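User: Hello, beginner here. Can you help me understand these amino acid letters and fold codes? It all follows right here:
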Amino acid sequence: MAQTTSRDVARLRLGAAGAAVTVATVLTNALAYVVPMLGARRLSAAELGALAAVLALAAIAAVPGFGLQIAVAAHRARSGAHGTGRLGLRTAAVTAGVTLAAAPALTVALRLPLALTLLLAATTFATVLSGRWLGELQGDQRFLRLAAAMVVVAVGRYGGLVVGLLLGQGPELCLLLATLTGLLALPLLARLASPAGYLRPADPATSGPTADDPAETSAAPITGTALGARQVMTACGATLAMLTISYADLILARQLLPTDASGAYAVGAVLTKGALWAPQVVTLLVLPRLAQGDRRARLVALALILACGVVLVVGSAIGGELAFRLVGGADYLHLAGTAPMFAAVGALYAVVFMLVNDRVATGARWPAAPLWLATAGLAAGATLLAPRTVTGVLICSLTAAALAAVVMAWLVFGRDDADPRGTRPSP
């Protein structure tokens, strides 16, 4: 009876944690959208173009931060609390250094003010370094604090930009304020990730969830090995592959289709992104369990993501006209029949991304290789075989997503079949 009550409390806390992380994600995305909306109203076209280009570069430069978070989270879940401070600093410093070294070339190639590209390096340092503390909180399954930290990161990253735009300042001063807020957020992140008052349960069979840990820990730390640069580079490569394949069809549509058709594809791609990112909170919550080889958690997560995808695809099939009317307006209603296909692409990539995270968390080599192959196949198919229409590119994208999902499932579950004892083999 006591054990049942403990499990019920754990489920309730996990549900609360999932809701908190979902709210934090929504707030993060809302702040990200507020910046271009304000910029369009407060800046000249030339200034807005420069700021948009810098923000796009910042998104690319932030990839090592996401890789650092995944690597730290998986390491903490497997090996417990070991120092990640130096590696986090090195990752942030190297990324900022590369950005700084590229500043003169970016200034010339993109016709940007030098001050913007120099400030980009500083903001990159803060963004990447924040991945260390986010990873620690995620790996320790302190999801309520993780949600708070995600909001802190978002405010630090975009708050200065919003304030600067509201005050009517130019791109340089706006980015300077963003740099300051990003750096000021770091001590608060360190405080949130502080282990004070938190003890990981040593024996999950006898320990209940802690106040900061809304989920039961499925396994105790396994080893005491240190986190190395190779694991971070592997996670960064996987993150970059996921980012690349999720935008590859948009880039191909822009290159291969007439201007009007590429714009229509961009409207439909909003449904793809919605189906892709809607269940990502599941991947975030389950990653520590994946690192511990918890097959049941993986199956539950996969079932939830599949269920979410089915609901979104069916909803798109029923309400395709409404979806396109909301996203793009009446001019795009002729594409309503393609709505379930756009949603299916995102739903399949949601499955793929969860399985890629599983491969990263369990230390597999080249975890994102199928994604790079799928991206190459998508590019070749769309360029050489598909009709130069929205449907032609969309069919190529759907085929690439389906093949990537099949291959990733075979890699993940095929390893289980090869290891009937229930342990994950080392790569």
